[in-house]
Amino acid sequence: MKTLRVLLTTVAATAALAACSGKKAVKPPPPPVDNGAVTTAPAQSGPYSGPEALDKDSCLRQRVIYFDLDKTEIHSEFQAQIACHAAYLRQFPGAKVTLEGNADERGTRDYNQGLGERRGNAVSSAIAAAGASTSQLNVVSYGEEKPVCREHNEACWQKNRRVEIVYTSKQ
Amino acid sequence: MHQRLLTWLTAVALAICAAPLFAQGLTLEIANGNASALPIAVIPFQWQGGGAPPDTNVSDVVTNDLNRCGQFRALPKTDIVESPARGSEIKFPTWRLLKQDYILVGRVIDAGAGEVKVEFELYTVGDQKNLLSSVIAGQRSDMRGIAHRVADAVYEKITGVRGAFDTRIAYVTAKGIGNNATYALMVADSDGYGPQQVVTSRQPLLSPAWSPDGRKLAYESFERGASAIYIQDIGTGAREVVSARKGINGAPAFSPDGRKLALSLSNGVNPDIYVMDLASHALTQITRNYAIDTEPVWSPDGSTIYFTSDRGGKPQIYQVAAGGGGESRVTFVGDQNAKATVSWDGKKIAMSQGNKNMYHIAVLDRATGSNTPISTGNFDESPSFAPNASMLMYAATEGSRDVLYAVSADGRVRQRLVLADGDVRTPAWGPYRQRGQ
Q1: In chain A, helix, strand, coil percent, each to 5?
Q2: Which residues in chain B have Cβ-Cβ distances shorter than 8 Å to A107?
Q3: I need a surface site. Which of A90, A120, A168, B110 has the fewest CB within 10 A?
Q4: Which of A106, A111, A115, A141 would you mutate first to test chain B, the one with the most B CBs within 10 A?
Q5: Is B152 an 8 Å CB contact of chain A?
Q6: What is the pLDDT of residues B123-145, one digit of tens each?
Q7: Minimal Cα distance from A125: which residue of B?
Q8: pLDDT score of B12
Q9: From CA B99, how far away is CA B75, in angstroms rounded?
Q10: In chain B, where are the structural domains located?
């Protein structure tokens, strides 16, 4: 039993690290320009001590993934976040998350629900690919119905184009 | 099969909250006028009864109705120099001098036991011809409804088209943000008066759609934590979940015969158009596409479904046979088009048109192909035709709030409906009213 868990967490950690570094491996070396946005350090992806890690671990505490306009691609800066949540879900098979997809206010409400679901599904697939079970992942799209910001400018819209990772069961 | 999954819930738990009826009332402002409209003098109706007259002034309601549809220009009250109460008392030269085409006079008669009778007469000023002499009786408590029916009779007599003032609208109100948000599905008269709560929720409500008999609303609610479509009886409050599948259960639209519901279901993958038989709840998949297919609406004859799809890269309006097949693109003007509404004769389609940063309501004439913008905002969406297509209602965003506009079909007269506190959105114009509702 113990060996199994160790094995599982090792696999999870490896999968997570692979997910973190996978893209970087094929990328050409970055130009010598300081770009804070893309030089996110890979996070330590478990093993975690328990559900309290969700509140304490700096990577697991990040639960929002932002998107470009009309896009569902996940930026590389969010890969670490995807990986650590996948590792956590791997380690605690009873844990479950709902991925809440959201869109900005532009466009019609029903269409934006479709867009929010595409984003939720993109995050769900990424977390599953990084090792979580699909039975632990649920997607709900709120479209433009749950904005965090109500101004009509890009700074605000950016905050609303998001998927929130919500734990409905922690272990 | 699915019927087992359905739940009927009663009025007691959920429905019409009679409490502060005007707490969520809409305020109404006329934004502009139409100089080329038909001039009509609506003379204040005379009260004939023992006690105090009803609070509602019939001629004020009629005046407002005729003005807001864009086809009439009622003489301002301050210019009404004489007050005839019946045809025989009209001095036509006075109204000829005031350049009026029509004159409406009438009386409100106390019929006892809470009832009133409104007698009215419509004349042409030019040849002094009596166009209409009629009586509408009803409850004193429904004076606004009676007044709207007077306006409908005048409208129909002069234009030849059935009036649609005595109709209702459904819309969603929202207050607060995040965990403090509250939502309500509301029904009000088409001029915003008499708002009634149909249902309230801490989670989003959207996309109300009327049944063709005006008795029920279908809508999407997240109150169970995920998207589901409900059908609710407005009178009794009884409601039923008709679709709560994985993913999106959205954009319901009753067929013209009321037997079917078009809807958008994603099954957790991507939204396609389906049609549900409301008796059996059996589903037929109408579109099958990797794009987002949503916002279905029926042609008036029930043969065609119009919907929004981004299969070409950006949202555009498409059409499909109501039983499936024969899909084709409908809109070609504008970078994006979404959320269609169809006029009663099927000749006009209105939708939200523009690009991602700015969009307005445009009307497409299917016969000529002409495309006419009829709104002026930057974020105008959710158009809904009145049952006679003389006006449309749509949602707009102004500053940090969502408001509704009623606009004449030619875009010339606009009227704003604002909620005192909070947002108002997704208007749906109800069908002609079957009296007794």
Answers
A1: 45, 15, 40
A2: 315, 336, 338, 356
A3: A168
A4: A111
A5: no
A6: 999 999 999 999 999 999 999 99
A7: B269
A8: 27
A9: 10
A10: 2-23+169-429, 35-159
Locate the domains of chain A by residue range: 2-25+51-169
pLDDT digits (tens, 9 = 90+) for B198-247: 999 999 999 999 999 999 999 999 999 999 999 999 999 999 999 999 99
Rounded to a whole number of angstroms, the distance from the CA of B226 to the nearest CA of chain A is 6
pLDDT digits (tens, 9 = 90+) for A78-122: 999 999 999 999 999 999 999 999 999 999 999 999 999 999 999
Residue listed under structure tokens 């996070």? A43
* pLDDT at position B421: 78
Q: Domain spanning B35-159 has what CATH number?
A: 3.40.50.10070
Instruction: At B409, list the tokens.
Output: 């079909």
**B180 at the A interface (CB within 8 A)?**
no
Q: Answer whether A108 sits within 8 Å of B379, measured CB to CB.
A: no
CATH, range B2-23+169-429: 2.120.10.30
Provide the ipTM: 0.89
Residue pair B373/B365 in contact (Cβ under 8 Å)? The answer is no
Give B67-101 pLDDT, tens digit per residue: 988 899 999 999 999 999 999 999 999 999 999 99
- Torsion, Cα of B296, B238, B256, B392 (10° steps): -70
Chain B residues whose CB is inside 8 A of the A120 CB are: none
Query: Could you tell me which of B376, B374, B377 has the C-alpha nearest to residue B385?
Result: B374
Question: What residues of chain A lie within 8 A of the CB of B379, using their CB?
Answer: 105-106, 152
Name chain A contacts of B381, Cβ cutoff 8 Å. 108-109
